[in-house]
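Re-run requested by the PI after the first attempt was lost when the workstation crashed. Everything re-entered from the original request form. Ligand of interest: adenosine-5'-diphosphate.
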Amino acid sequence: MNWLLPRLTAGVLAMLAGGCAGFLVSNVEHTVVWRVLAGGAIGVALAALLDTARGYRLIEWLRGSQEQQAPRDAGFWGELGYRVERSIRLREQGLEQERLRLEQFLSAIEASPNGVMILDAGQQIVWCNGVAADHFGLDPQRDRRQRVTNLVRSPAFVAYLQQARFGAEPVSFANPRGDGTLSVLLRSYGEGMTLVLSQDVTDRERHEAMRRDFVANVSHEIRTPLTVLSGFIETMGNLPLTEVERKRVLELMAQQTGRMQTLVSDLLTLAQLEGSPRPAADRWVPLAPLLAQVESDAKALSGGNHTIEFAAANGIEIAGSHAELLSAVHNLVGNAVRYTPEGGRITVGWQQQADGSGELSVTDTGLGIAREHLPRLTERFYRVDGSRSRDTGGTGLGLSIVKHVVQRHGAELQVDSEPGKGSRFRIVFPAARVRTLG
Ligand code: ADP
């Protein structure tokens, strides 16, 4: 009610002023009563005019953007303007806080490694984060309010959405780019709203496929010698063998057992390489004695059938694990001997580069490898010629071991080969892992 007094005062003052003016200007021939009434009427008209002007100003302000302050008039219109402005400002503050909260919430979903998409009851896209847009090949702005099945046409996805089996197992299908696999899960909420959660499972599927292949390969590699062994055991149990035959059978059995032992030993080496921390960068391994050890093994394996030359590596040291480096060089030189026909040459060299890095090379004049096989050589159980590999005692894991050792030492494996001419395998160690003692 505190607006009432000033308003009445203003009205009374306006009426008085109007009254006086009317009294003075009205015709003196009129009676005093008429003059007072005329003055009063003019006063009321003035007060009403003033009131209308204030009300009009407030309405004009309300019609606008209300960014300016409301008119600060005294009295009724002033108070009304002030109250309206205050409630508008409070509403704006509340909206701003809600907007910030929504923004934070959406940025949290945006940061999610998984795709999140919201569909309305008509399966139209309400919102999706960048990951979902990438997964489904959508544009988060342009494709809003579009029916999702018009844009994502994968039959598995469309069927899953149409069956609306919310809470069921996720469904997997090829992503729209066709270069990977998506796993999608639907959840319903609110009134007919759907939450679509997506995950790129390409790597997981690839690993799973690799694991399955690996188990199948190991089983196959072990089953072959086991079948041979059980055949021999049966033969020895059922047939009377001469001493010479018995010796031959035992020899073949020992060969198969040796094959299984090598396979298990290579598998253990691989498992160890994959499961242990990288070799220390400050444990120095002298190269010369390591090469000497490999040289004597290579000569034994060759049985004098090849020319084998090892470079002197006096004073050279490589930072890392002696056992791992020995295994890598051993595998490379072993392969060179096994894949080089009699009379061939095998050379092991060391070259220090100007930038401090060092290169250990194993060169042979053997069978060589066709270009198309090179990218897959270091895959587990990959063989260019399976029977030759097995005949010479190969497990198909040698270069896979080499690749792991090389990576763990921060080095690089390079292969140059030409069928019929020979191959060169090079391990390039970074400068930080090479030193030369004076
Ligand atoms: P394996 O036990 O079969 O030798 P590796 O992983 O060591 O397995 O090598 C994979 C394949 O690469 C071999 O099967 C062979 O076909 C080819 N290979 C490796 N080294 C050589 C080489 N020096 N010359 C020709 N082929 C090679």
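Saved to the shared folder this time. The chain has four domains: 4-86, 112-200, 209-275, 284-436.
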